[in-house]
Amino acid sequence: QSVLTQPPSVSAAPGQKVTISCSGNSSIRNNYVSWYQQLPGTAPKLLFYDDYKRPSGIPDRFSASRSGTSASLVISRLQTGDEAIYYCGTWDASLSAVFGGGTRLTVL
Amino acid sequence: EVQLVGSGGGLVRPGGSLRLSCTAAGFTFRSYAMSWVRQAPGKGLEWVSSISGNGDTTYYADSVKGRFTFSRDNSKNTLFLQMNSLRAEDTAIYYCARNNYDSFDYWGQGTLVTVSS
Predict the structure, then answer these.
(1) In which residue ranges of chain A is pLDDT below 50?
(2) Measured over all CA atoms, what is the biggest interatomic distance in chain B, rounded to whole angstroms?
(3) Which has more pLDDT, B99 or B101?
(4) Which chain A residues in 79-108 lie under 8 Å from chain B, judged by CB atoms?
(5) What angle do CA A25, A9, B64 make, to 5 degrees?
């Protein structure tokens, strides 16, 4: 069972905005959160690190934030190509990485 | 360009062993901690193990501790995951990934391990 909790699925229409939440315990309070996008049949890809920092090449339609033990990923101006599973991740006190269960985004 | 290429997956019987490899290119390999993350069919991501840049320190998930050994050869830019006493629940795609502080910034393409009789 993940220490990070994500909704199993979210959906929205093209052009709309969607928010994916990630809630956790003290692990998420004391360590940075990262976000990953996994397109169908591919390896995960880093979307955000250190809570909100976007690697080069990630469109600014994607944004992330963290407040206390909760983090959020926001995708604006949705495109069909954004359909993927999104994971949040962090580290716990025993220096083990932990991931949320993943959220499947459907662009209707 | 950073590249991580995993290999060594396959079909193995319960109780058997397998060694995965991951060859890195495009960055100063010894400067980065590295990890293995797996994904069972239709399931989410599960961290397996991490290793420091010089290979002196390793960390393991409880689910694999005592059965898996993570090592690296910095002269060959290669990671190894020795997996012993394999179980059906170890069936997954195994990804090698580069650690960048608190995140995994590059991932290999994954190699499939199937444990079945």
Answers:
(1) 1
(2) 41
(3) B99
(4) 85, 87, 89-91, 94-102
(5) 55
On whether the CB atoms of residues B95 and B22 are closer than 8 A, the answer is no
Whether A7 and chain B come into contact, CB under 8 Å, resolves to no
Q: How far B35 CA lies from chain A's nearest CA (Å)?
A: 10
Using a CB-CB cut-off of 8 Å, the residues of chain B touching A33 are 102
> Nearest residue of B to residue A104 by CA position?
B44
CA gap A21, B113 in Å, rounded: 31
pLDDT at A28: 67
Can you read off the two tokens belonging to residue A78?
Answer: 């949705």
As a whole number, mean pLDDT of residues B5-27 equals: 98
- Give the list of residues 6+ apart from residue A59 with CB closer than 8 angstroms, or none: none
Non-local (6+) Cβ contacts of A65 within 8 A are A51, A52, A71, A72, A74
Judge whether residue B4 has pLDDT over 70: yes
For residue B61, pLDDT over 90 is answered with yes
Give me the pLDDT at residue B117, please: 95
Chain A residue nearest residue B102, CA to CA: A32
Strands B45-51, B18-25: parallel, antiparallel or unpaired by DSSP?
A: unpaired
pLDDT at residue B67 is higher than 90:
yes
CA B102 to chain centre: 17
The pLDDT assigned to B69 comes to 98
Radius of gyration, CA atoms only, chain A: 13
